[in-house]
Structures are given as structure tokens and as C-alpha cells.
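Hi R.,

Here's the chain you asked about this morning:
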Amino acid sequence: MQGWRLISTWRLDIHRSRMDPLSPIAVLYGAVVRLRGWAYAAGVFPSTKLQAPVISVGNLAMGGTGKTPTTIALAKRLLDSGCRVAILSRGYMGKHRDGPLLVSDGQRICATASEAGDEPLVIARNLPRAVVAVCKQRAKAGAWLEQHFKVDVHLLDDGFQHLQLHRDLNLLVIDATDPFAGGLPPRGRLREPLDAISRADAVVLTRTEAGQSYTGLVGAIHRYKPGIPCLRVRQKLASLRRLGEDEDLPMDLLHSLPVMAFAGIGNPPQFLAALREARIDVAKSVFFPDHHPYRAQDYRRLEQECEKAKVNTLITTEKDAEKLSAPQFEPRAVFAARVAFEFDDVTELSRLLSQLVEVAAR
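And the predicted structure, written out as C-alpha cells:
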């Protein structure tokens, strides 16, 4: 049945490709991705199952959709319910290449952003009670953590395409401000065709606005999987942390100051929009590629831009702060803005998570 559906989908894509000169590349890309997904679903490629249940948090689009803040928000709920939570990450852009690397043991940070990548460090700092590990083969990281720690639930960060690991709950994160990312490459930024939505158990719509209707978007999602729960999440900047310090500071600390915003992230417009919503006066902005490793020339460029804009205060993201050196900016002050996600439908979220908690308790 899955094979016939795969063939019929290819035929439809080929028919559509005749209308667009870029579409043949997208059709080929989509065919390869679908074939890989079919191979895992059919058991041609094996998936490893861990002892504790696994919640996968991932997306279809390349770039910043809010996977990591969603992972943090879910982990906090599970930790508050009494679960012992482990976070599994691939450690993107980290230099560690061997077996599992422990980033946090639930009490202290055990690795650097250079070793583990920036996002695992952000997760570890926001979840001091969770254990965090990175490994390209995340099943190995999960098994290693189960050997050395008591784990009730694993959270697989950026895991929607990591089919090598069996998951018990598959959450798909979709940015409501750019839900389908322009389609497949080379025209758009989708990692997979939209019919991959059918693999998800629930959709998390990030960056939603209170009082706005998303019935059109939910309807489009339901065309690929009728009735799938769609949870809404609102984003806000919750607090500040001065680079090199650990104290949480209120956002209004910067309300009277012009600042320069900079970051190496996948979705710069969203960062600027969040700063505006927090009433931060951005006099200048500088952006680098996602996961950018800061070097001497970057510090010089930022200094020059500050001088041109006549600002002495800079603001960036938590992810970027993990790779920055405070002395490089002296005498200017640099602050990292902490993002918090709030779920609108906590009842449906609690129902989904409680099913996993029950499994963990058995």
C-alpha cells in the first residue's frame, strides 16, 4: 500500500514539474527523501528502540522554526511532573566526533559549545535538572545515558528526520509565520515534502499571536493528516543575561538605551520582531549565517558598526552568547535575550505528555 502511494505521489510531482523549470530538481529531491522514509517504515532500514520512551521534536523546514525552545518548554513540564529527562542532540557544528559526549549531568555543564555545538549548551543552561548528551548516532547517546543515569523520558532535539531512532511521540514544529518555507529546494527550504506531516503525532505551531485565527493553516495541515492535534505556542523574550555572567535580568533594563542587535541564526526577522515587541530600540542590526563561529574579524566588524551607530550596548541570542568572549567587547556591554515559549492549549499538551509519563512509570 505504501509503495503504491509512493509511486502515485511521484507521478503527481512529475506532472506538476512541467509547469516550473526548477521543479525537476525538487521532484528528484522529494523522491529521494520519500524513498528513505519508506525504507524505514517498511523495515528495510532498522530503527533502534531505547528502554525509556522517546519524544521527538523536529521540523520540515531548514532554519529557525523554534525547535530548541519547544524542546526546553516540553522538558520543563516533564521535569516539573517528576520525570527524569534526558536530552539527545546531534551536536551540530560541534567538534566532537567520537561516541556520546556528556554536556550536562543534571547538575553542572560538562562540555563547551566548541565541543558540543551551541544549541546543546543553550538547552543545558535552561534545563539544569536534565541530563544532556550529543552524538551523531543519538541511539548510542540514549543507550549510554540509560547505563549511567536514571532516565524516564528522552527528548530528541531536531529529530523528525532522524529515523534511525524509534520515537514514541513525534512532534512536528511549524513556524506559523512561514509554515511551508517556499517548498522543496532549490526554490524553498523544506527538508521533506509536506506529506511527511503524516508521520507526526501532533503539530506545534510556533510564533502564533493571541487572538489570531489559524484555521486556514490548520486546514492545510489536516489535508495531510486529518484530525492531527495542532498546539499553538507564543514566543516572548523573557529575560536578559549579561555576557560572562549568570544572573537573569529584566528586559526593561534596556528600554531607555539604543542597542545594536546581532546574531548568527536561521531566522533574523523573527529575532528583530521579538526585540520590537519587547520594546527594545534597535539602532543597528548585523546578522551572520546560522551557527556562525565568531572570529577576530567578526569582533572588529561589530566594533566598527557600534562606532558608526554610536551605541555602546549590544544584544544577541542565547545561542550566539555560548560562542562569544565578553572581554572582546569591552568596554561595551553585551546582553543575551532568553526566549520563552508558552503553550495555549495546555490541556491537549498535558494529555499527550501524560501518555508518555504513564509508559515511563510501567
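The chain has three domains: 2-41, 54-234+342-361, 236-338.

Let me know if you need anything else.
M.
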